[in-house]
Amino acid sequence: MSLPLARAQRREAAVNIIREPKVYLVGRQLIDEAAIDGFLAEYGMAWETDSEVGAELLAEAAGRLCYLSYGKGRKDSREYLANIIESKHGSVLEHAVWNFIIAGVSRSFTHELVRHRAGFGYSQLSQRYVDESMANFVEPDAIAEDEGLHAIWLRAVEMAHRAYVELVEGLAAKYKDVPDRTQRRKLARQAARSVLPNATETMIFVTANARALRHFIEMRANEWADVEIRKVALAILRIMQKESPSMFGDYAVVELADGTQVARTPHEKV
User: Fold this and answer.
1) Residue 5: CB atoms within 10 Å
2) What is the number of other CB atoms lying within 10 angstroms of the CB of residue 92?
3) In which element (H, E) is residue 23 found?
4) Residues 142-200 pLDDT 10s
5) Rounded distance between C-alpha atoms, residue 45 and residue 33, angstroms
6) What is the pLDDT of residues 91-110, one digit of tens each?
7) d(CA 55, CA 93)
8) Closest to 223 measured CA to CA, from 254, 195, 193
9) Inter-residue contact 238 to 23 (CB < 8 Å)
10) Which helix (H) or strand (E) holds 163?
11) Which of 51, 55, 70, 206 fits a disulfide with 45 by CB distance 3.0 to 4.6 angstroms?
């Protein structure tokens, strides 16, 4: 089956199918210049730098505090942070923080993502409180591109989804005497979700610092990583190369023989 035909067939399916993840940068840091200037003035120092990215300025300010090197040595922010990365002084990058919403991903993906603990914070969609009767499902590329495999996958997802809907209805009747409406729904949904597959779409709010993001990209944007998490890692990298070129500009996206992409950097494990 050609890919366009496969996509057309998926649009006609009883369940909603997702093929690509979505990453939204929703939060970034701002620097309080008056407070920084107050600190510098009190200790008889001055500092000028050229970056307009709050996270880069905060990381630079943190690094310069270690040696009281404000106004000394490397005055270009990009040059300063490049030296931090080359020297592997990764703790300085922990002061730079961003916030993301990641959607269009499977619960298989989030099971892997939340293994990244140091430098990360998470808030994920709850299947106990959110009704999954209109859930979306994430189909792996390796299955979607094959007509026979797609049919098997779709049949399994549709059966699981129907079972979920029927279980929610049956459990709602079972708990009809529970006086609190929210509690009734939670009791039904938390039991019924047991039949939902790992392919069920979820959403997750992620907060991470620059050092943690670099580690995530190096671990997950490579040929050994699962395809779905690799897509997310590359999407985050592309966002961060625009957002903070001084901290992420050393990565290059390389295409492999199979047409997929990975990230490479000469400065690993910063």
Assistant:
1) 10
2) 25
3) strand 22-28
4) 999 999 999 999 999 999 999 999 999 999 999 999 999 999 999 999 999 999 999 99
5) 14
6) 999 999 999 999 999 999 99
7) 9
8) 254
9) no
10) helix 147-174
11) 70
At residue 2, does pLDDT exceed 80?
A: no
Taking a C-beta distance cutoff of 8 angstroms, is the pair 21, 107 a contact?
no
> Rounded to an integer, what is the distance from CA 161 to the centroid of its chain?
26
Q: In the block, which residue shows the tokens 């970056």?
A: 51
Q: In the structure, what pLDDT confidence band is assigned to residue 13 with cuts at 50, 70 and 90?
A: very low
Q: Please state the separation of Cα 54 from the chain's center in Å.
A: 21
Q: Say if CB 207 and CB 121 are below 8 A apart.
A: yes
220 is a catalytic site residue: yes
Query: Would the pTM count as exceeding 0.85?
Result: yes
Extract the tokens encoding 45: 């120092």
Given a contact cutoff of 8 angstroms between Cβ atoms, the answer to whether 239 and 233 are in contact is no
Q: Which residues pair with 254 in a beta bridge?
A: 262
Residue 14 is predicted with a pLDDT of: 64
Cα Dmax for the chain? 72
Give me the catalytic one of 184, 220, 230, 238: 220
Contacts of 63 (CB under 8 A, 6+ apart): 80, 81, 84, 89, 92
Question: Exposed, middle or buried: residue 43 (CB in 10 Å: 0-12, 13-18, 19+)?
Answer: exposed
Geometric angle at alpha carbon 120, from 117 and 26, rounded to 5°: 155
